[in-house]
Records
---
Amino acid sequence: MNELNPDIYTVAWIAPLEIEAQAALHMLDNHHRGRFALNRGDDYVFRAGDLGGHNTIIATLPAGQEYGTGSAAALASQVKKFFPNLWFGLLVGVAAGLPSLSRHPPRDIRLGDVLVGLPEGNSAGLIAYDLGKDTGAGGFQLLRDGHVLANTETVVRSAIQNIKLMAPQDVDTFKSYYETIRCKQHANGDFNDPGQDHDHLYQMDDKGVSHIVQRERRPDSARTRVWYGPIGSGEKLMKNTRRRNELRDKYSIIGLEMEAAGTMNRIPVGVIRGVCDYGDEHKNKGWQSYAAAMAAAYAKAILYEIRPKASAPAYVKRETDDQGIQSRLPVRTTFLGREEEMSQMKQCFGSDLCRKSLVLWGLSGSGKTQLAIHYVSTNKQTYKSVLWIDGSTSALIHQSFENLSHHISGYNRERPATEQVIEWLERETNRSWMIVFDGVPGAYDVDDPENFDIRKYLPTCDHGHILLVTTASDLHLRLALPEIHLEGVDDITGCSILLRCAGVQAPDDSGKATARSISHKLGGLPSLLNKLALCYPTVSFGWMISISSFNSAFLIRRSKLP
């Protein structure tokens, strides 16, 4: 088995519990085959893969080890020592949620919601609530007022903020990731939602008697919420309603967990937790798998928000023919809207694996590639293999096939790689795949040496799904294939893209109107809106620019766009 190199891994995903680690492993884009060499004193075995272009390790506690701040500290210390080039870490798992219905507005936290540790007012983003000293008359005083020594890396907080800007639609940024693992099996079942009918919050009266709190059922479209605020971290498992409420009210915390305080001062992690109970006497494990999956999905969204520092080695997963190949997808950028086009693509390909082909075409910058990425990411569970091919030139197609050919069974270096990959796709035992050709050029001209006929690279079998992405308006006609014409987004979606990319947190009505007008003038092209937003610093632009001044400013800025 291959020996993995610790030097290339830049992200640590810490998932102390087994169910948390299982959810994390399902979220990886690719699993890296091999093991890390261990020396005397190395007590932990790590799993590795890549996600969003980041080489990532999954760290969990050994079987049978007690969990808590002490165990988490030991694990984090060895992670930091073993991987010298870590950039940042994420602590991802389950926690107790702390609803506060008497607040204004109410903090109606429910099972399956996601908690993200962030400072709020004078409160730290993480409160080590049992670390301190008894001062006698002054009562229990938190060490450093509960603040930990290290802060989460700025880039992680920035990614969280980028997702938070979408609230209450922030769930849309990661819900599709949860859907990919929802039906995955683990030792005690799967990651499905137990259902709102089984979510019971109890309130204790003055006599110590618990009563179920009647709460309005959430609509299915708003089943999950993300809560941002301080999270409490302690050594003991919380199963006490009165103590829970005391901590909630004293420190304004949204949840309780047991590892972050031990981890943070060794690796400044972002703390992401799914709510699996309410920290009361009714605590049980029935919601852990669903909560762990929701937290893992949010963590994956964070990694996709952060562009990797440098190109990572192009690992491709290949274990057996049954597990197939998963190409690394291009980096995702801001993606909003396109529900109609997503529905059309789903209708075209369906869930069966008979041969289906589709041409996705539109102007450069209309978001074709990002739509293709989003469709593939959302429907990965449908396919054992997903092959992403740069289809812009014949040379790049051959290079893509060359890279893939080394990871198919029966590879023969003496034979053309393209031929071998196509034959592999056409095998009757290999029916579950999608191949995407991105950037396919227009009309084929036999007299143009730079041009080529895409048809010679398409498998001819009666199974598999093929997606061709192009700016050519006639490609679907020449190939006699169904098509989706991708035009600019509507003004409201364009406004959201523009404001989000520019980092505008709370635009007023005038700012929104300006953004909608600018989106309309630019034809709603997502790529252009994204680049335009990056041209204007948020503070100076402030979204108070007028349409007339935008016209002149845009002509100057346009020449500077890549």
Note: The chain is about 30% helix and 20% strand.
---
Amino acid sequence: MSYHFNNRRLLHNYYKLRVPLLLIMSLLFFSQGAHASPPHIIDIRSKAPQCRVYSKPALHEALDKICYVCHEMFSHIRPNLRSECRSKCFRNEHFRGCVSVFAPGLSEGLFSKGYGGNHRAG
């Protein structure tokens, strides 16, 4: 008798959970399903072929990380700081300002050695 009672309770619990689970699954399916666009892939190198940073993935990742962290710190002041920092192949006042936040005095030495591309700092 207790076996039958336990099965009945399990079956009742299953039916109680079935409706919310179906609702959650359908919301997940329809939120990503038919109207989802394919992933947007951008080839960064095609935008700035003269920029040597893009041909060196480790350097590009490091410079981009500087811009990302700087943007996270100062986005309340400059909402477009990440794109401004990355402009002109990382050779601009925004990037130099970000570098000086993390390593004061390094930004002048960094650009005097010619890292970052063919543009002149200025």
Note: The radius of gyration is 27 Å.
---
Amino acid sequence: MAIDTIIPATMSSSPAPCSRSWSISEDSLRRYVQFASESCIQELLAASDTNRGKDSDGWKILTLDNGVEISKRRSGSLHTFRSRWILRSVSPQQFITVANAIDAAKQWDSDLVEARYIKDLEDNLSIIRLRFGDNSKPLFRNREFIVYERRETMEDGTLVVAVASLPKEIAAGLHPKQSNAIRGLLLQSGWVVEKLEDDSCVVTYVVQLDPAGWLPKCFVNRFNTKLVMIIEDLKKLAQACPSEGEI
């Protein structure tokens, strides 16, 4: 989709991490994010579709343990990772309350140093900065990501949260890169949370990232180890979250 109001920004005298940055109106930014996030949502829904044949869509199961499935699919030179599991006696809203609480994100992702909103475009559409520090695992060490987050409820009640990086020029215009950080690209990620009959839910989490900068391939392709830890932490937080009737 063409963005008709993007204007190259004047470069400051300080070293620029990106060769150029774009100044963009809020309306154009909103329209771009709505367009880009729609594609991400459809990819997430396709990845969560259990009716698809396991061999036809390219997913290969890495682990299947204690009700948690982690699989991956090659996408160009990188892999997309997917995790799926059932949360008993946890409603979709309980889970999303925990997974989508930016101020609580560090409780389930120990590598995260900072997460904060840069801009709210609509009630369900935001721009967020994620920062990972010196002590993070190699895949995330000293990385930052400028991402959009879109939250949707589908007609059948399925909750979808789509998160992906903005193009680097737009991101640089919104938030200049810090000199001590490497700006990675979160190519696609998000949650699909489907309600089950007994007020439980099935959760699908999908992520594909380009961490930027050279890393041994094994660091990127062993992302499933990190997923296992995230899932365990999220399970504990979601099960401790009060249900709607208890609030």
Note: Residues 26-48 form the longest helix (23 residues).
---
Amino acid sequence: MVSGKVKWFNNAKGYGFILADGRDEDLFAHYSAIQMDGYKTLKAGQPVSFDIIQGPKGLHAVNISAPSAAAEQADPSQGEA
């Protein structure tokens, strides 16, 4: 999986773009590729993880997931033993 941040996402149209860490090209993100329960949406600046595939008009982000609030609050210095 690749990490990045949401550049923008339009809820009304159901798509937006993600900027992957270490890449210059924007990745197309469709709401159907978001892996979450309930209303599938993303917010600008939100950190996400995803896979990249080649689409008909460029690169697409798929299997998009945002870290859970619990994971974001976990102490990164506490690794598994």
Note: Helices lie at 69-73.
